[in-house]
Write a structure and sequence with these properties.
It is built from 39 helices and 24 strands. By secondary structure, the protein is α/β, with parallel strands linked by helices. Among the domains are: about 180 residues, 5'-nuclease (Rossmann fold, 3-Layer(aba) Sandwich), CATH 3.40.50.1010; about 200 residues, Nucleotidyltransferase, domain 5 (2-Layer Sandwich); about 100 residues, Up-down Bundle (Taq DNA Polymerase, Chain T, domain 4), CATH 1.20.1060. Helix 17 links the parallel strand 13 and strand 14. Helix 25 runs antiparallel to helix 28 and helix 37 packs across helix 38. Single-chain monomer with multiple functions. Belongs to the DNA polymerase type-A family. Pfam families: 5_3_exonuc (PF01367), 5_3_exonuc_N (PF02739), DNA_pol_A (PF00476), DNA_pol_A_exo1 (PF01612). InterPro entries: 3'-5'_exonuclease_dom, 5-3_exonucl_a-hlix_arch_N, 5-3_exonuclease, 5-3_exonuclease_C_sf, DNA-dir_DNA_pol_A_CS, DNA-dir_DNA_pol_A_palm_dom, DNA/RNA_pol_sf, DNA_polI_H3TH.
């Protein structure tokens, strides 16, 4: 059916609606396993109501559900802080997002998302297309950001309030008609999305101003006429921020889509598929309604959800077996050494104990230990208060220790023997944190299990692995929220201010939950066939990373300060050059002013204005301008603007911010590594992120000069050379690449020679550059469009390069095809070392399908590389124990060491051998892993 006159499109804002459903509807969990599904249930009812009305000849003829692809879009390029202050998703909401996409497909409804754009942009695009085609559109949402679209042929409907939203409702909300909503939002900003707007101007004032002056541009042009000083200054001082805000709030109605309006025609769901999904979700009432409509008998509801069995292969206890309830009143508070001694004796008898710490900070290097919780069996938990305080301890109002607590030193001394006893297993959730807290008090915990890492080994890619989510999902229990004890915002307190009785219930419950999770997850490792992954790649990495994080790396504050000052001077110099080239002064940081100079005054062709009337001046556009030989002034100006932007980012993000990250007690920066962050096994560095320091530019590389070795010591860097390409050559079985690596041939030159029939001795830098882009692009499943942008060539030419690449190296094409098929059949892919990377979206259709396939193709390669360096890190401490050396950082494929100056020459061959032999004996690679080494007084010299 071709979409046209008489047709009506309904667009469900899935990303916004699931939040509304979550907050508006009562909580609902699946009976068989406690999975939260309340928002999914509300979402499914909305979908079915839409389909039911359509089948009766009412409402929509076409329907789609639209989702945000990810949190990062083109708006983050315009303004990196866009939506930066959004809170983390509630633990019980996070697992429901992928289920809403699965529900959409089960109901046979189009499920749309586009990388780099928000759901609102897709909705804007489809709504405009519907009206242009002669039809109409209703947006199923109450999101205020979508109200700018309301107009002839387009309205909105709030399904929670069963309320239509038209021009009158928009006028009531914003004080202006829909075509002026953007102007009001640009002035008022949005604290939720972190849109700056003009300080001190709210919605009412913004509406008053727009109604008085007609539109935003007129208002800004006449801002000097405004009599109220605060309003006048707010507009004059923040004009660029207001225009930026307009770019942020304006919905992009030309979002690229791979569907047409006709593709969105409504069809009833396929009975088998929708029944299977609803049965798995255990939505009994809705299942019966849908079955009746489809004219089939509703299937019986299983007691155990088959989805959980097949997806996670972990059910060990019968759901008929009653769970022991959580009884907070039964938890013990250990207030004397005699009671502690009884617990220690019991721990020795049992042979295991779940342990957790309560502290004053998430920063383990600065946190004070407040208390310790213990649990030996489900329901049998206790809390040892050590550092709780009370206000008004002296005449000056200082705090004092609360009564009824044990001495910290004596308690640690009593616990140290069992915490270090090799015959007693210690159980934790995110044990690296507690390991570091105890290590700072002279205790090195061993042996231990970590429930977070057990979950990660089995369920990477399916859900997160925080304790609250695991408890809710596997124990059917929602732990006490920490906010109920600490509060939030300015009134938030630290844990030492929590009353001891409240702390007992919260902290002992944490240990109780951890023990029960261990009892549930531990037996599942072998069923999921990831015991080896957990035992050799996850658990032994904890103390290695903890030692690295505690060691930190020395940073020279003076060097950073000098760089920051130099960058400031460079920015001033660049601004003067830019003004000279442009022939006038303007705000270098203003994209609008820059666009006017480039495309209006200098008459550079190709300028495109957005809906706000401002030209686009993103980095890709400026880079294109730098190549224009017939516009030398514009090319020179664009090049200098790019230089200015780069220096400004380096200054704010690195030389300024890193100074604040230096620990005042150690003079070093202590990053924290997340083991269970990335699905592929790659580590993530946070607080601060030391894996993201730029190295491609001279200025970026100079930042590494601030990372230094103390007197008498040097930094040593060892870096895997092209490890992912080497792993690709092995996995995809490509003889030409394997031989090139073994013979030490330039792999990019070889690829260029193979593809373009150019002898190696006649290779040009341009041909080699293209081959390099293809080599690395193929690993990430790059498309013709993506390669075209990277190389700045026509898409057809780029696609031709990729096609030729696969012709020359057919093993890669076979590998990609086989990997996708394996993922579709099994729901996961694997590294060479057995790590499972789950791919729940692999069978999706629509815009997300391509991304899911590319991720599946890349995961075994990136994951194997991550496993290799993990194995090297785990073996490294023993290999270099006899040296005065320690490992400080892991930056993707690089390890950084600090070593006594006279032992660097000894360290390098030892560490190099460990890294090059890291895959053995588990995996015998057909390609040698090469490692490059360097040393110096600072990181820049060593790398």
């Amino acid at each position: 059916m071709t979409f046209g006159a008489g047709h009506h499109l309904h667009l469900i804002d899935g990303s916004a609606y699931i939040f509304r459903a979550y907050h508006a509807l009562p909580p609902l969990t699946r009976k068989s396993d406690g999975l939260p599904v309340g928002a999914v249930a509300g979402f499914c009812n909305i979908l079915w109501n839409e389909l039911s009305r359509a089948s009766n000849g009412k409402a929509a003829t076409h329907l789609a559900v639209v989702f945000d692809h990810s949190s990062l879009t083109f708006r983050n390029t315009l303004y990196p802080d866009y939506k930066a202050n959004r809170p983390e998703l509630p633990e019980d909401l996070r697992p429901q997002f992928p289920l809403t996409r699965e529900a959409t497909r089960a109901f046979n409804v189009a499920c749309l998302e586009t990388e780099g754009f928000e759901a609102d942009d897709i909705i804007a695009t489809l709504a405009r297309e519907a009206v242009k085609a002669g039809g109409s559109c209703t947006i199923i949402s109450s999101d205020k950001d979508l109200m700018q679209l309301v107009g002839p042929g387009i309205d909105m409907f709030d399904p929670m309030k069963t309320k239509a939203i038209g021009p009158d409702e928009v006028m009531e909300k914003f004080g202006v008609p829909p075509n002026r909503v953007i102007d009001v939002q640009s002035l008022a900003g949005d604290s939720v999305d972190n849109v700056p707007g003009a300080p001190g101007i709210g919605l009412k004032t913004a509406a008053l101003l727009i109604n008085e002056y007609g539109d935003l541009d007129t208002l800004l042009a006449r801002a000097g006429e405004i009599k109220q000083p605060k309003r006048r200054e707010a507009l004059l001082d923040n004009a660029d921020k207001i225009r930026l805000s307009r770019d942020l709030v304006t919905l992009k109605d030309d979002t690229p889509l791979d569907v047409t309006l006709s593709d969105l025609e409504i069809h009833l769901p396929e009975a088998e598929k929708v029944m299977d999904f609803l049965t798995k979700m255990e939505f009994r009432t809705l299942t019966k309604r849908v079955a009746d409509k489809l004219g089939i008998a509703p299937p019986s509801m299983p007691e155990t959800s088959q989805l959980q069995v097949t997806a996670r292969e972990e059910e060990t206890q019968s759901n008929d077996e009653p769970r022991l309830p959580f009884d907070h009143a039964a938890y013990e508070c250990i207030r004397d050494m005699a009671a502690l001694a009884r617990w220690i004796a019991h721990i020795r008898d049992i042979g295991h104990v779940a342990v957790d710490t309560e502290t004053t900070s998430l920063d383990e290097m600065r946190a004070d230990l407040v208390g310790i919780s213990l649990c030996v069996d489900a329901g049998k938990a206790a809390y040892i208060p050590l550092g709780h305080t009370t206000g008004g301890g002296d005449l000056f109002g200082a705090t004092a220790l609360a009564e009824g607590q044990l001495d910290l030193t004596a308690t640690i001394a009593a616990l140290k023997p069992i915490l270090e006893d090799p015959a007693i297993l210690k159980i934790g959730q995110n044990m690296k944190y507690d390991w570091k807290i105890f290590a700072r008090h002279g205790v090195r915990i061993t042996p231990f299990d970590d429930t977070m890492l057990m979950s990660y080994a089995m369920h990477a890619g399916i859900h997160n692995h925080g304790m609250d989510e695991l408890s809710d999902r596997y124990l059917g229990h929602q732990p006490i929220p920490i906010k109920t004890l600490l509060g939030s915002g300015k009134s938030q307190i630290t844990f030492d201010k929590v009353a001891i009785d409240d702390a007992v219930r919260y902290a002992a419950e944490d240990a109780d939950v951890t023990l029960r999770l261990w009892q549930h997850l531990k037996p599942q490792l072998h069923r999921a066939r990831v015991t080896t992954v957990y035992e050799t790649l996850e658990r032994p990495l904890v103390p290695v990373l903890a030692d690295m994080e505690m060691a930190g790396i020395q940073v020279d504050r003076d060097t950073l300060n000098r760089m920051s000052n130099a960058f400031a001077q460079k920015l001033v110099q660049l601004e003067e050059e830019i003004h000279d080239i442009a022939g006038e002064k303007f705000n270098v940081g203003s994209p609008k002013q820059l666009g006017e100079i480039l495309f209006d005054r200098l008459q550079i062709p190709g300028g495109e204005k957005g809906k706000t009337g401002a030209y686009g001046t993103g980095a890709d556009i400026l880079e294109d301008i730098t190549t224009l030989d017939d516009h030398p002034t514009g090319a020179q100006l664009a090049a200098r603007i790019l230089d200015w932007r780069q220096i400004a980012k380096l200054k704010s993000t690195y030389t300024d911010a890193l100074q604040l990250a230096i620990n005042p007690d150690t003079g070093r920066v202590h990053t924290s590594y997340s083991i269970a962050g990335a699905n592929t096994g790659r580590l993530a560095s946070t607080d601060p992120n030391l894996q993201n320091i730029p190295v491609r530019t001279e200025e970026g590389r100079r930042i590494r000069e601030a990372f230094v070795a103390p007197p008498g010591r040097v930094l040593v860097s060892l870096d895997y050379s092209q490890i992912e390409l080497r792993i690709l050559a092995h996995i995809a079985d490509i003889p030409e690449l394997r031989r090139a690596f073994e013979d030490g041939i330039d792999i990019h030159a070889l690829t260029a020679s193979e593809m373009f029939n150019v002898p190696l001795d006649q290779m040009t830098s341009d041909i080699r550059r293209k081959a390099k882009a293809i080599n690395f692009g193929v690993i990430y499943g790059i498309s013709g469009f993506g390669l075209a942008r990277n190389l700045r060539i026509p898409r057809a030419e780029a696609q031709g390069f990729i096609d030729r690449y696969f012709e020359r190296f057919p093993g890669i094409k076979t590998y990609m095809s086989d990997t996708v098929k394996f993922a579709q059949a099994n729901g996961h892919v694997q590294t060479l070392f057995g790590r499972k990377i789950n791919t729940p979206e692999i069978n999706a259709k629509g815009p997300g399908a391509g991304f899911a396939k590319r991720a599946a193709i890349n995961a075994p390669i990136q994951g194997t590389a991550a496993d290799v360096i993990r194995r090297a890190m785990i073996r490294m401490p023993k290999a270099i124990a006899h040296l005065d050396a320690r490992m400080l950082l892991q930056v993707h494929d690089e390890l950084l060491f600090e070593v006594a100056e006279d032992q660097a020459a000894t360290l390098i061959p030892i560490a190099k051998e460990v890294m090059e032999q890291a895959s053995a004996p588990a995996v015998s690679l057909q390609v040698h892993l090469a490692v490059e080494a360097g040393q110096g007084r600072n990181w820049a010299e060593a790398h």
